[in-house]
Specification:
By secondary structure, the protein is of the alpha/beta class. Helix content is 43%, strand content 21%. The two termini are 19 Å apart. Bound molecules: adenosine-5'-diphosphate (ADP) and guanosine-5'-monophosphate.
Length: 200
């Protein structure tokens, strides 16, 4: 069995990354989501261990010191990181593992795991982004502005990604994500061993 693909998804907060990933996960069972640790407070409705593992800064710093995080970064005053063991275990089971992480963490993954598939999701416009962030109702006005500023900055630094998905129509965006995963599964190096039965 070949090891799964590591799919890194980034893009402006409010672009719809979680929504697109959740929709794609409803349609296939060969992908799983890596739940991050964060020092941010839970939003109403968020569940510890599902949306994030909500931890304090001391525990976060211990995980960094113990090398338990595949990557980590500070995003608008809070720390976020990807637990390493879950990702490595699932990849070795052949699952495609999705990370929904911001761009500094994505750059660390790109450097340390160059085989990772880098996907950037954007909304159709900044106006639509503001509408979605406001409509989600989880952020204060000041945090929305900080996230929009960060979005503009991230779009300017995204040139190391492999794919861009425009999340205008949700069905189309999740189909595009699924197509990217399928294309990566068909890569020559992933299927090279199959040639041996033809006498290669
Ligand atoms: P992110 O994970 O990128 O921060 P979310 O998935 O939380 O973004 O989406 C932000 C808001 O935008 C949510 O209220 C979500 O329901 C809405 N949303 C996501 N995708 C679309 C879409 N294609 N069209 C309209 N609204 C969307
Ligand atoms: P939110 O607070 O809206 O859930 O997430 C804020 C930002 O943090 C988003 O861009 C999200 O992709 C990113 N993020 C979530 N988990 C991680 C993580 O483990 N590492 C990094 N680097 N960013 C993360």
């Amino acid at each position: 069995m070949s090891i799964g693909n590591l799919i890194v998804i980034s893009g402006p907060s409010g672009a719809g990354k979680s929504t697109v990933v959740n929709r794609a996960m409803e349609t296939r069972n060969d992908i799983c989501f890596s739940t991050s640790v964060t020092t941010r407070s839970p939003r109403p409705g968020e569940i510890d261990g599902v949306d994030y593992f909500f931890i304090n800064q001391k525990r976060f710093d211990e995980m960094v010191a113990d090398n338990d995080l595949l990557e980590h970064a500070v995003y608008v005053s809070n720390s976020y990181g990807t637990p390493r063991k879950f990702v490595e275990d699932k990849l070795s089971e052949g699952m495609n593992v999705i990370l929904d992480i911001e761009i500094q963490g994505a750059a660390q993954v790109h450097k340390n795991k160059p085989e990772a598939v880098m996907v950037f999701i954007i909304p159709p416009s900044i106006d639509e982004l503001r509408k979605r962030l406001t409509g989600r109702g989880t952020e204060t006005e000041a945090t929305i502005e900080a996230r929009i500023q960060r979005a503009v900055q991230e779009c300017g630094e995204a040139d190391f990604y492999d794919y861009i998905i425009i999340n205008d129509d949700l069905d189309k965006a999740s189909e595009e994500l699924s197509s990217i995963i399928n294309a990566e599964l068909c890569r020559f190096d992933k299927r090279y061993e199959l040639l041996s039965s033809f006498g290669k």
